[in-house]
Specification:
By secondary structure, the protein is of the alpha/beta class. Among the domains are: about 160 residues, 3-Layer(aba) Sandwich (Rossmann fold), CATH 3.40.50.300; about 120 residues, Zinc Finger, Delta Prime, domain 3, CATH 1.20.272.10; about 70 residues, no CATH class; about 70 residues. It has 26 helices and 8 strands. The strands form 2 sheets. It has a 5-stranded parallel β-sheet with strand order 2-3-4-1-5, with helices on one face. Strands 6-7-8 form a 3-stranded mixed β-sheet. It is flat. It starts with 18 loop residues before the first helix and ends with a helix.
Length: about 625
């Protein structure tokens, strides 16, 4: 950052200048974290391979507009008797440098595409581009937020952009690179400006703080760098705000109150409570942080960040040595990384990631955050679904090895007890069956409030009789319905019978069959299918048939969907009908006439045979075709 602007915090007119403007970079050396782009431009300028247009893209505050001005300065850099060609070495202030950096040079035209979106604005550029620059070497057009231009404006710019006059250069800046037409991108050299690394951001903030005589702790600078998310402008704006918030020395506690952040050490304590299943302590800690001003959504975000850090320490131990990791995070993070498996960390990450979104949209954020913590504490020791499925396939009973699955195992075994329990989603318990120690039809609840493992094998394990209670009588298992389902057509018919139209449509249009076996179906979902279509399909079949069905997503390429097969069959019928001599003669006699539909007349048995893609009778098809021709 270049600090050789005004000696004080105020400009020449007495108005206060924010730090982001006062310390705006003026040379390529001042750009923080953009070394690859600077190296490319330096080589291009030295060899004379200067492009006619550049596209600068990146998140807000990384210096796109500033880089565009510096690039325009380098193109027009001129020091009489010393520098007469474009360069990236801008040690001295040249003839045009000050006017360009202040945005008032006559040959460097800046345009905000957000307020000049039309073709008429582009026509003005095209007309003016024909004239040579007034004083500078190049006439440079800087178009900020270029993705806001209309389609007509983009199209009008294409020809001039591809073959501009030798004295014209274009520099575009945008935060939405995907909205820029590919025809424009292909005519530009693209530079993706990186987010500024936290360690470099801390160094930048420290240099500016020292220049401004601001006393601020290293931990406070770290909090600002994290909150800035790689944006120099955002970080400097937060530093400005911190200076206004605290007139003396700025400490980390002051920043936390200002930003609504939680103490990092307390976030680690909260993480420890959750990983140990101490839900009561976790809720109390969240309440305490909320009372001192911490935002519940930010607390969950910090929890997710620490979960990510612990995961990285486990799989890449060297990440603990990074400068942005505090001593508390390093020490306790290593401790957690040694004890917690990647599977549990991944599960915690997924729950927190979804929980942050829930809290941000909830009408009562604290209550929503409480529920996320409860969900996390109770789910942290659940067995992996893959393990349950493996046990079922091997003929084992998952309930027999699950802690707390016996008649007495559930009492007193909440999250703090460490009991590994789960509910099998999509495996409904038959009506009338009762949980351990429960005489009713609903699953029993533990004393700590945790539901017991639901029946996976269609029933419950043997239980010891409870004194004073009548032993439940065994019930007749429902008749197997798997034999009635032989393909997806049968499944679609069953969904129609159950009046579940959304599932019927999903079976017909979003599932490509790979393999169909009794109790197990392998499918390849279509691109527009929901992510949980296989689990939902298996749950529905299990509910409808009373038997367990596994629906597996396969990587193999499946056959066309029912809808695609029906469309293909219909198109074949139309093609055959059009080629029939009688139909062709009719079409020739009636210009403009066309075949719009073909219906095959057949008996119910024939229709049933044709509706099943697994059963194909060529003789029957040929006979029906002959009937249709007649």
């Amino acid at each position: 950052m270049n600090s050789n602007t005004d000696s004080g915090a105020h400009g020449q007119d007495g108005a206060y200048r924010v730090l982001a403007r006062k310390y705006r970079p003026k040379t390529f050396e001042d750009l923080v974290g953009q070394e690859p782009m600077v190296q490319t431009l330096e080589n291009a300028f030295e060899t004379g391979r200067i492009a006619q247009a550049w596209m600068l893209t990146g998140v807000r505050g990384v210096g796109k507009t500033t880089t565009a001005r510096i690039l325009a300065r380098g193109l027009n850099y001129e020091v009489p008797g010393e520098a007469e060609k474009p360069t990236v070495k801008l040690e001295r202030e040249g003839t045009h440098c000050k006017a360009i950096m202040e945005g008032r040079h006559v040959d460097v035209i800046e345009m905000d595409a957000a307020s000049h979106t039309g073709i008429n604005d582009i026509r003005e550029i095209i007309d003016a581009a024909r004239y040579r620059p007034a004083t500078a070497r190049y006439k440079v057009y800087i178009i900020d937020e270029v993705h806001m231009l209309s389609n007509a404006a983009f199209n009008g710019l294409l020809k001039t952009l591809e073959e501009p006059p030798e004295h014209v250069k274009f520099i575009f800046a945008t935060t939405e690179i995907r909205k820029v037409p590919i025809t424009v991108l292909s005519r530009c050299q693209r530079f993706d400006l990186r987010r500024i690394d936290q360690s470099k951001m801390i160094g930048l903030l420290r240099r500016i703080s020292d220049a401004e005589n601001i006393r601020i702790s290293d931990e406070a600078l770290l909090l600002i760098a994290r909150a800035g998310e790689g944006s120099a402008r955002d970080s400097l704006s937060l530093l400005d705000q911190a200076m206004a918030h605290e007139t003396g020395a700025i400490e980390a506690d002051d920043l936390r109150q200002m930003l609504g952040l939680a103490d990092r050490a307390r976030v680690i304590d909260l993480f420890g409570h959750l990983m140990s299943g101490r839900i009561e302590e976790a809720l109390a800690e969240l309440q305490a942080q909320y009372e001192v001003g911490a935002d519940p959504a930010i607390v969950l975000t910090d929890l997710a960040d620490f979960t990510h850090l612990v995961t990285r320490m486990k799989v890449a131990p060297k990440s603990a040595d990074e400068a942005t990791v505090t001593e508390a995070e390093r020490a306790r993070g290593k401790e957690f990384a040694e004890k917690i498996s990647v599977r549990l960390l991944s599960r915690a990450w997924q729950i927190l990631l979804k929980g942050v979104q829930e809290v941000q949209t909830a009408s009562k954020p604290l209550q929503a955050a409480d529920m996320v913590l409860v969900r996390l504490a109770y789910a942290i020791d659940l067995p992996d679904p893959g393990e349950l499925l493996s046990q079922v396939k091997n003929g084992q009973n998952p309930l027999a090895s699950a802690p707390g699955s016996g008649p007495q195992g559930g009492h007193g075994s909440g999250p703090s007890g460490g009991g590994a329990q789960a509910m099998a989603v999509g495996m409904p318990q038959p009506s009338g069956m009762s949980g351990p120690g429960d005489g009713g039809g609903a699953p029993s609840m533990h004393a700590a409030g945790r539901p017991q493992l639901a029946a996976i094998n269609g029933g419950l394990p043997d239980q010891a009789p409870v004194p004073g209670k009548a032993e439940p009588q065994p019930q007749q298992a429902p008749e197997p319905a798997q034999s009635a389902l032989k393909n997806l057509y049968d499944c679609a018919a069953l969904a129609s019978e159950k009046r579940d139209i959304p599932m019927k449509v999903a079976i017909q249009r979003q599932m490509r069959l790979v393999k169909f076996e009794p109790g197990k179906i392998e499918i390849q979902p279509t691109e527009d299918a929901p992510a949980d279509i296989a689990g939902e399909f298996g749950r529905k079949l299990t509910e409808w048939t009373g038997q367990r069905w596994f629906v597996v997503v396969s990587r193999e390429h499946g056959r066309p969907t029912i809808h695609e097969e029906q469309e293909a069959n219909q198109q074949q019928l139309l093609s055959d009908a059009k080629s029939h001599p009688t139909v062709a003669a009719l079409l020739s006699q009636f210009p403009g006439a066309k075949v719009v539909d073909v219906k095959v007349q057949a008996t119910e048995e024939d229709e049933a045979a044709l509706a099943d893609p697994m059963v194909s009778d060529p003789l029957l098809n040929e006979a029906l075709g002959d009937d249709e021709d007649d």
